């Protein structure tokens, strides 16, 4: 891992670790029926289940197999009284790794989640996933968050290839992938089943050596 750095601005979006205090926001995020698919088979319908969801990510982080970050628009201020977001202008986004920033400065409510799982250090690969709250959809939070996650995964985890997938009937998720620099690689037919319906999935990938293209 590289030495922790303070975050830059990211068009108003920063990534920070999930905290137990985020449980109410997690519970609200998983309230829509569509979001139940994002819970990994673990229902999130109570405060206790929301806390368990957060704790599972901490266990993944400890094991080195997965890392999830809350995407926030910071509302706090630094020790100098200046807004952290006003200190720079890096549109790719940044992960909050400074303990000082993780504490007082980044107090905004979680607007979404970006994660890299199935981390394989032998092959330098990982699987990216993301979601946003209903209120944050269409605001650019997801694409900014995935860009920040990819940068962190390449620079800090040392990964070479990141993959993600979305249902072919989900153009919004496809747009997030493209805007985060992920190239479509093909269709996986009938990969997902929800109820009695199977869905094709389009796979995207981004390499550490890919030219930056956030189109």
UniProtKB/TrEMBL annotation:
<dbReference type="Pfam" id="PF13302">
    <property type="entry name" value="Acetyltransf_3"/>
</dbReference>
<dbReference type="GO" id="GO:1990189">
    <property type="term" value="F:protein N-terminal-serine acetyltransferase activity"/>
</dbReference>
<dbReference type="GO" id="GO:0005737">
    <property type="term" value="C:cytoplasm"/>
</dbReference>
<keyword id="KW-0808">Transferase</keyword>
<dbReference type="GO" id="GO:0008999">
    <property type="term" value="F:protein-N-terminal-alanine acetyltransferase activity"/>
</dbReference>
<protein>
    <submittedName>
        <fullName>GNAT family N-acetyltransferase</fullName>
    </submittedName>
</protein>
<dbReference type="InterPro" id="IPR051908">
    <property type="entry name" value="Ribosomal_N-acetyltransferase"/>
</dbReference>
<feature type="domain" description="N-acetyltransferase">
    <location>
        <begin position="13"/>
        <end position="208"/>
    </location>
</feature>
<dbReference type="InterPro" id="IPR000182">
    <property type="entry name" value="GNAT_dom"/>
</dbReference>
<dbReference type="InterPro" id="IPR016181">
    <property type="entry name" value="Acyl_CoA_acyltransferase"/>
</dbReference>
């Amino acid at each position: 891992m590289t030495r922790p750095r303070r975050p830059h601005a990211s068009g108003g979006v920063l990534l920070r670790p999930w905290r137990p205090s985020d449980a109410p926001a997690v519970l609200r995020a998983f309230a829509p029926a569509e979001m139940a698919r994002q819970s990994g088979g673990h229902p999130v319908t109570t405060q206790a289940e929301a806390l368990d969801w957060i704790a599972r990510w901490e266990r993944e982080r400890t094991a080195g197999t997965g890392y999830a970050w809350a995407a926030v628009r910071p509302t706090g201020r630094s020790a100098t009284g200046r807004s952290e977001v006003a200190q720079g202008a890096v549109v790719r986004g940044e992960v909050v790794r400074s303990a000082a920033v993780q504490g007082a400065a980044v107090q905004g409510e979680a607007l979404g989640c970006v994660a890299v799982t199935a981390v394989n250090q032998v092959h330098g690969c990982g699987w990216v996933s993301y979601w946003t709250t209903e209120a944050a959809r269409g605001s650019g939070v997801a694409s900014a968050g995935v860009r920040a996650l990819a940068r962190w995964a390449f620079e800090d985890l040392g990964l070479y290839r990141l993959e993600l997938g979305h249902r072919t009937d989900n153009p919004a998720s496809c747009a997030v992938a493209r805007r985060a620099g992920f190239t479509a690689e093909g269709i996986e037919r009938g990969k997902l089943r929800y109820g009695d319906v199977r869905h094709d999935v389009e796979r995207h990938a981004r390499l550490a050596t890919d030219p930056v293209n956030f189109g």
